[in-house]
Here is the input.
Amino acid sequence: MEVKSITEQKSLLATLSPGKRARLRRLLFDYGPGNGTLMLLPIDQGIEHGPRDFFPNPASKDPEYQFSLAAEAGYSAIACQIGLASRYYPDYAGQVPLILKVNGKTDIPPSDDAFSSTNASVEDAVRLGADAVGYTLYVGSPRQDVDLHQLKGVREECERYGMPLVVWAYPRGRDIDKKGGQVSFYAIDYAARMAMEMGADVVKLNFPKFDPEKDKDQPAPYNEMDVSPEEAVRQIVESAGRSLVVLSGGSKTDDETVLNHTRTIMGAGGSGVIFGRNVWQREKSEALEIIGQIKETLLSNVRRIP
Amino acid sequence: MEVKSITEQKSLLATLSPGKRARLRRLLFDYGPGNGTLMLLPIDQGIEHGPRDFFPNPASKDPEYQFSLAAEAGYSAIACQIGLASRYYPDYAGQVPLILKVNGKTDIPPSDDAFSSTNASVEDAVRLGADAVGYTLYVGSPRQDVDLHQLKGVREECERYGMPLVVWAYPRGRDIDKKGGQVSFYAIDYAARMAMEMGADVVKLNFPKFDPEKDKDQPAPYNEMDVSPEEAVRQIVESAGRSLVVLSGGSKTDDETVLNHTRTIMGAGGSGVIFGRNVWQREKSEALEIIGQIKETLLSNVRRIP
Amino acid sequence: MEVKSITEQKSLLATLSPGKRARLRRLLFDYGPGNGTLMLLPIDQGIEHGPRDFFPNPASKDPEYQFSLAAEAGYSAIACQIGLASRYYPDYAGQVPLILKVNGKTDIPPSDDAFSSTNASVEDAVRLGADAVGYTLYVGSPRQDVDLHQLKGVREECERYGMPLVVWAYPRGRDIDKKGGQVSFYAIDYAARMAMEMGADVVKLNFPKFDPEKDKDQPAPYNEMDVSPEEAVRQIVESAGRSLVVLSGGSKTDDETVLNHTRTIMGAGGSGVIFGRNVWQREKSEALEIIGQIKETLLSNVRRIP
Amino acid sequence: MEVKSITEQKSLLATLSPGKRARLRRLLFDYGPGNGTLMLLPIDQGIEHGPRDFFPNPASKDPEYQFSLAAEAGYSAIACQIGLASRYYPDYAGQVPLILKVNGKTDIPPSDDAFSSTNASVEDAVRLGADAVGYTLYVGSPRQDVDLHQLKGVREECERYGMPLVVWAYPRGRDIDKKGGQVSFYAIDYAARMAMEMGADVVKLNFPKFDPEKDKDQPAPYNEMDVSPEEAVRQIVESAGRSLVVLSGGSKTDDETVLNHTRTIMGAGGSGVIFGRNVWQREKSEALEIIGQIKETLLSNVRRIP
Amino acid sequence: MEVKSITEQKSLLATLSPGKRARLRRLLFDYGPGNGTLMLLPIDQGIEHGPRDFFPNPASKDPEYQFSLAAEAGYSAIACQIGLASRYYPDYAGQVPLILKVNGKTDIPPSDDAFSSTNASVEDAVRLGADAVGYTLYVGSPRQDVDLHQLKGVREECERYGMPLVVWAYPRGRDIDKKGGQVSFYAIDYAARMAMEMGADVVKLNFPKFDPEKDKDQPAPYNEMDVSPEEAVRQIVESAGRSLVVLSGGSKTDDETVLNHTRTIMGAGGSGVIFGRNVWQREKSEALEIIGQIKETLLSNVRRIP
Here is the structure.
């Protein structure tokens, strides 16, 4: 089955209120690679996976490492939870923008009924001088009713304070596991649309993975589609409509894959990347090197005007 | 068993507060086919089913398609969720009225305990210039207690702001499945009454389906009734009392069925139709053609003065 | 085992705040049969059972039927939910008092964990000019904690606004089913006391039924008591203390039973009846006839001064 | 294993705010037996067990009986729920102090997950002129999280209004059943401490029962302790620290046991008793006689200055 | 696998608001051993385990014992729940700082779904003159969503009132039991990071235990790590970042272990200890002796400037 491309997206910034526009513009143009791109550094793994993610590069256990990296390497923003934002961000305030993640959870319990409750508020973000708020939405979880309602509150506060809303849109839960899994094209495509429909300004998505065995469990017509990863990412970006899309990296992989993913998302009309472990699980000099390459790749593949 | 007709319904508009009346009148007379009819375009399928509904007509994946269609073809209103209303409606504000749907969910989990939590508020609707609010009520779900209480809050805000309330009344959940299923005459008839009793100004219902195998599981006397679809729809409309009724289409079907359903609902004293996939899963010229036919059918079968 | 009678109840009205007293007096003396009696017309069956209850008398499907009946026949009050109260009561405002029922549910799911959430508020009742509020309490349900707490909120608002509180006290849930069932003497007796202790001004109860097979499952000493229905009703009325008691009819039965029940409740010191299907599942002339007989029976058997 | 006595408790009244002190002093000195004792009459059995508790003495079914008994016999206070407090207490206001119980439940469902939600508020108690508030805490129930949080709200309101807080501390739920049961020394001892730590001014406890079979299921060292009932009660009173302790009676027993329990609790440093069925399940003259004996026993065994 | 040390932590006090700084400084420098250390006396065992913890030293059952001990021996603070804080702290106000624990529970139900609801508020702490608030977080419990959201409210109130937040970070629940248990290196390390990320000013942790059998169930790389207890504690303290760490003792052990643990935590860059049963399960003279040794050990092993 063939799916044709849709028209180019209209500017998102043009649809935003002054507060959201001012803040999001800062990330897109004033900090980071600029030119409408987003290079984001996430450091929520200490909550989501525990300290073990820091073991490959012990220096990374001290949040100072990521904050100084973000500031020195010139990131569009650093994303973290309230504890780090309160204790480590102050030294870097004004040097790199902050995205305050307002919900999170450990990965100790299984994710059959995944839901992340809020542990901070949009008002916290305002007080800390953040330029955006991050929210993890578990698309398709059995507890989606609680999740969507909680997101309503966060979105409304974002509108009230003119704070851009970045949604980590993750398909999750026992039911998506039965329909091809959480990284299938179907799952990620649905997540992209869902985040956009819920009012996300920026959507963070995982790179879809193809697995012949699992893919046939996807609902039609996904179960019979034969698309390249590039085409899949292009369609996913389309599903997010006017919301900007950034792609995440997941666990550490080789450099070529990192840069290829960067090229793919930009070529598909995305706005950037949010790589964590692939960056800070390296010693500083190595980290700075890959960051430089990512930045260059981002800038040389810009297709969308935000 | 024979069931006789009841008297014609009194004007709904006459019972409404000024705010509700002003807004609902706009949909019934100033936009769309007019003359007291409702031709509504729903675009909540991206949430309820995911992007797959857009595949038959890739252009439909861009919400621009539905918004421009609604404006150009002259719809009574377009119904969508907060994300689309915030990003796509502004360009069409004043050209076609907006119904903001305030709850929704993905169809990834099973619907045994169906419940859609709110992801937007009536105040959002006011702010966006909407002329009505949409709410999905899962009639007979095991979680009806949460649903009815949530609807209470929405209804009260609607009264406070003079905002008409459109209830998507869907029988759903494991228990209705045991009593003949969610599209039986019994189920739809109950849903119609329920929505009216809960204060809906407009009720959206599915066309009942007859299935000898399942129908015998309906509670008496439905299990032994032998009525034509036309008669069933007539009775269902009666069950909604003074609330206006619009019929939905469901998945795409042939044109004759679409127009027949339109005739049936109007002949039964209904006020219009809300067809989504049957309209926008076509290329624009084809879509405009069927819309023209629907509009004509609506206007030539008006029986009720709203 | 013999149980002796207690003293006559003191006046309830004498213990009420001015607002409650003014409103309840209206029902007891100014409307309906008067002389301290209550003849109430319930029309909540469209929610609680669905439209099927209207089939025996199709005219009854249009709420106009019950409203006009209540006004013409001179009822003490009509009891219905928010939808009917908003759309149909306005034409009868001032002609017959309104009891706004503030909670309800469909009977599609089983009642093992019965609970009815509120779909309207006491403030709604005030706004609509109602003279009392109705609340369904499922005595002994596994969810009694939620129910009793919700009732607290309703009762407090009733006190705030001087609104009489009528409690539909129904034993319900999987546990009462194991202890003799929901219409046993034990169950109804407990429900009467419970409603009174929770602050009901008027308690609506079902007529107890005797069933040798089930009755032995009641807790002692009910399982071994041998009392006549009249004696049981008398004791049940005593259990409600100073709260007024009205008896309900349930599904349609023969006229003699209707009038016998009326005599029994009045003879037991009750204040009246609340018959729905037994009245409006008849054509108007027949309905008016039985209403006349009920009214006469009420007035000729008054024993308690409210 | 031997457990030694601790020092005498300091005055509780000395630690209380003026409002609490004024009200509690009234119960301890101005009403009832006085001299720092508490003789309380509970009448919450109509909710907790249903009307069957009134059958041994039919007169007791009319709350007038207990209210007049409390006033005539000179009780420190009468404890009841909102319905009785609203309808029966007004006639006795000023004659006997009121303890308004703010939560309760029927015993129809099993108590595996025992929890009593509030059906009245501390503000209700203030409005009704009560001198204390009663709260039932189910110590060790699987729903303790909801219970303790609810108690927080009641305690805070008590502090706000200067209202003494009486906690009915009952070990309950499926887990305590596995650890020796709800009336073991372990269970009651834990309950006493828990209520004190949660801020109770007065703790109501059951008399511990010894049962060789069940007692060995208690956690160490209780499972191997060999203490007399008197010693157990003494230790339990110590566990309640500065909170005053009153002992309850449970179902009706013989007079000697009633008076023995009274002596035991007073000798252990307790402040009084709260006997219900043991008192009002008798005809008035008999009731007054046992009350006289209880009062005398209380006054002749005072050990603690409150 | 080798894990290297990270840089020394920056001063926590320097990052705190004036209110938090003033109060926490009091604990660190003005009371207790001083010099930036924390010697805390917990007395929440009466709630968490019941009175049985007081049996080894009956005098300890009277909270007076712990309060006087804390004041006389010169503790940095005493930590207890609302009941003790209200009734026993007033006599010691100004002599020893108070940490008000705002949540807690009995250990009667199993801890598969561990969650402690709040029974007091930060405002209570302010009113009582406390210098910090304590909160128990069950890291990795299936109910972490409720826990983290509740902690959000407490943290925000702490920020509002300038009240330091001490988090008891306990891995707990059925899932951590499957991943090596609640005292594994993995579990404690995760808990340390979690508390810090949630905004704790001080984190209370258990001493990790090594158990070859269970340790292999830990997620990688913990399951294959071979570190000494000292090294594990050092890494755990690092995981808490700028939050101060105090180590708890658990059930009573021998003196050498107590002092060794004290040395270990201080050597690892921790700030002190919170030993309860190891201290007050001794007669006063013995207790004072071990306290003296702890104090000396603390002061002679200071490594971190808070």
About this structure: The two ends of chain C are 31 Å apart (CA to CA). The longest helix of chain C spans residues 144-161. Chains C and E do not touch (no CB pair under 8 Å). Chain C is about 40% helix and 15% strand.
